[in-house]
């Protein structure tokens, strides 16, 4: 008997992501996502217009969120439940604008259709792409083609996986989209044949804007304890101490660093996303 085609909805929580959001949405639609629910939290760049364009095309449900207290887990939970109640989703991916869920084989819909009954959540490993000096008019995917073999956050901790899940009306998405709960219990996830290509640092301007606004919003939050979103709290303190430019330069991948890290095996070339967008430009076709 043929497997039933799953309906896949992706949620996005975004703020000032105009340099990457259109690519993110286009990529995931081509990978089998049927519909997107996007919450726009006080964007001041072109992000809102880009999301509205996708809304007019019929593939996106737009939500404007005007609170400024980084209640990310509540906003994402609302979207995940909406995916179930209003869009009939079978599976939900709760995503960030800088994350690209890349399946090992086939597309995302085929991966999820093969998940056995009884498995309600999947983990996907994340890998960071190193920032490089960006020539004018260059796209991030064309320049950022080197990634960590094992990624760590700004605190030196292993980068945590992200979780996608079957759609439920009572689901609760944890902070950072790293876990989901039902009836007060964590839904135990299974590993998925999916790698998340992560591009958190694309330019200093984008990075500083993210840390300054996100860190200030996080400080206004009275629900999350100090151990939650610890990486952002740390980077926000670096920003307030005036150390963010030096941190950026420390992370920026120079030619000398590239040669050294390739030699010691901590960095590998990965141009899958660049090739994906190059193929679209030459008319290789789109799938959705």
Please describe what this structure looks like:
- The chain has helices at residues 21-30, 47-56, 72-85, 108-113, 140-143, 204-220, 230-240, 244-251, 255-263, 272-281, and strands at 8-14, 35-41, 60-65, 91-95, 99-103, 121-128, 146-148, 162-166, 172-173, 180-182, 185-186, 190-198, 267-269.
- The protein has 288 residues and is α/β, with parallel strands linked by helices.
- The chain has a single domain, classed as Spore Coat Polysaccharide Biosynthesis Protein SpsA, Chain A.
- The strands form three sheets. Strands 3-2-1-4-8-6-12-5 form an eight-stranded mixed β-sheet, sandwiched between helices. A three-stranded antiparallel β-sheet has the order 9-10-11.
- Strand 9 (172-173) and strand 10 form a beta hairpin.
- Helix 6 (204-220) packs across helix 7.
- The longest helix has 17 residues, at 204-220.
- The protein is globular, with a radius of gyration of 19 Å.
- The two termini are 23 Å apart.
- Residues 283-288 have low confidence and may be disordered.
| Number of E-type strands | 13
Sequence of strands across the biggest β-sheet: 3-2-1-4-8-6-12-5
The CATH class is: Alpha Beta
Number of domains: 1
Keywords:
288 residues, globular, single chain, alpha/beta, Spore Coat Polysaccharide Biosynthesis Protein SpsA, Chain A, eight-stranded mixed beta sheet
